[in-house]
Amino acid sequence: MIANRRPRPTSGDRELRLWKVGRALTITFTTAVLVAGGIFYGLVYLLDFQEIDTTKKLDAKTLFDLVKLSFGVVAGAGALVALVVAYRRQRVDEAGAHREATRLHTERFSQAVDKLGSDSPAVRLGGVHALAGLADDAPDDNLRQTCIDVLCAYLRLPHTPDPGTAELENHHMYLALREVRHTILRLIGDHYRRPEGTHHSWQGCDLDLTGVTIDGDMDFSDARFTRGTVTFNGASFSGSTVTFRDATLSGGTVDFGGATISDSRLFFNGATISDSTVLFNGATISEGSVVSFADATVSGGSAYFGGAMISGGSVYFGGAMISGGSVYFGDATISSGMVSFSRATISGGGVFFTDATLSGGTVSFDRSTLSSGTVTFSIATISGGTLDFSGATISGGRLFFNSTTIFSDTVSFSSATISGGTLDFEDSTGPAPTGLLTAIGSPVPRTVILSQAWAPIP
C-alpha cells in the first residue's frame, strides 16, 4: 500500500484564495502609482531635464491641462476598479465552474462505482470504462488519482479461482470476470504510454497493485516515469507479460519487492534508468520466467534484487550499459537458472553480489567490459553452478572476490583480457578460477591480490 501520500494541490484550493476588494484596490493603486512614478522619473532622466520652470500666474492653458489630467486620473482609477472587479468576477465564475464540474464528476463517479459492484460482468466492464473516462476528464489530479485507486482496488479484491469445465457455469463466470481484470490492466498500460501532460495521460500518478494476481499482459512501452510510485509489491505474476521496453525512469519508484514471478516475462529492454529505482527485493523468479534489462542503460539509478530467490528463472542484463548506477544482488540466492551480464559495459557504478549464494545455475559476465566502477562477490558463497568471465575485458575498475568461498572449479576467466584495474581475491578459499593466472600474467601486477594458495611460486 502507498502510505502517507500527500494530496496534490488542486485548482479549487487556489480559487478560494481571493483578496478582499479593499486590499486588492489598495495594492493595485499603489502598484499603479509606483509604476507611473518610475516611468515619469525615467522620462525626465532620459530627456535630461535639469529644472522645471515656475510661474506666479496660472494661465488658461495650464488650467485646462490640469483639468484634463484630473479627469484622466479619475478615469484611470475607474478603470482600475473595473479591472479588479472583473478579475474577481472571473475568479468567482471559475470557482463556480470548478465546483459544478466536481459535482458532476462525483455523480458520475458514484454511478461508475455502483456498476463495479454489479453481479453482471458486462455491467462491471461498463463501470471500468466509465471510471477510466472519469480519470481522463477529472478536473484535478486528486480526482484522477481517486479513479485510478478504485480501479487498482478492484484488482486487489480476492477472486475465485477457475473451477474448470466440470462446473461450466462457474467457469464461464470466472472467464468473464477475468476479462474485466484484463481490461483494467490494458487500460492502465494504454494511459501510461501517453506522454505526460497530454490529454488522457496518467503518467505521474501512483499505481498501487500490491498483492494483485496478474495473469494478463500490461504494456508500459515508451512510458516516462518522472514521479509517482508504481507498486507491484507482493504481486503474483502467472503466465503474463509486463513490458517496459524503451521506457524512461527518471524519478519515482517501480516496486516488484516480494513478487512471485512464475512462467511470466518482465521486459525492461532498452529502458533508461536514471535517478530512479526498480526494486525486486525478496522476489521469487521461478522456472520459465524472464526478467530482462537487455540493452538497458543504468546511469544514476538502481536495480535491486537484494534477497531475491532465482530458482529456474533468468535475469538478463545482456548488452546493458551501467554507468554511474548500480545493480544489486546482495543476499540473493541463485539455485538454478541464470543471471547474465553478457556483453554488458560497466563504466561506472557497480554490480554487487555481496553475500550472495550461487548453488546452481549460471552467473555470466562473458564478453563484458569493466572499464571503471565495481563488480564485487565479497563474502559470497559459490558452491555449484558456473560463474563465467570468459572473454571479458577488464581494463579498469575494481573486481572483488575477497573472502569468497569457492567450493569447486566453477569460476572461469578463460580467454579473459586483464590489462588494468584492481582485482582482489584476498582470503578467498577454494581452487583458483580457471584461466585467471594466465589472464593476469607473470609477474602478478601490484593491483592484483591473489589468495595465498593461488599465488605463483616465484
Structure explained in plain terms:
The protein has 458 residues and is an alpha/beta fold. The protein has helices spanning 11-15, 21-47, 60-116, 121-137, 141-156, 168-193, 436-440; strands at residues 207-208, 213-214, 218-219, 224-225, 229-231, 236-238, 241-243, 248-249, 253-255, 260-262, 265-267, 272-273, 277-279, 284-286, 290-292, 297-298, 302-304, 309-316, 321-322, 326-328, 333-340, 345-352, 357-364, 369-376, 381-388, 393-400, 405-406, 411-412, 417-424, 448-449. The strands form two sheets. It has a 16-stranded parallel sheet that branches. Strands 2, 3, 6, 7, 10, 11, 14, 15, 18, 21, 23, 25, 27 and 28 form a 14-stranded parallel sheet that branches. The relative contact order is 0.05.
**Structural class determined from secondary elements:** alpha/beta
- Give the tally of β-strands: 30
Q: What characterizes the major β-sheet? A: 16 strands, parallel
Radius of gyration: 34 Å
List keywords for this structure.
single chain; alpha/beta; 458 residues; 7 helices
Characterize this entry briefly.
The protein has 458 residues and is an alpha/beta fold. The chain has 2 domains: 60-205, no CATH class; 206-449.
Summarize the SSE layout with pairings.
Layout: H1 11-15, H2 21-47, H3 60-116, H4 121-137, H5 141-156, H6 168-193, E1 207-208, E2 213-214, E3 218-219, E4 224-225, E5 229-231, E6 236-238, E7 241-243, E8 248-249, E9 253-255, E10 260-262, E11 265-267, E12 272-273, E13 277-279, E14 284-286, E15 290-292, E16 297-298, E17 302-304, E18 309-316, E19 321-322, E20 326-328, E21 333-340, E22 345-352, E23 357-364, E24 369-376, E25 381-388, E26 393-400, E27 405-406, E28 411-412, E29 417-424, H7 436-440, E30 448-449
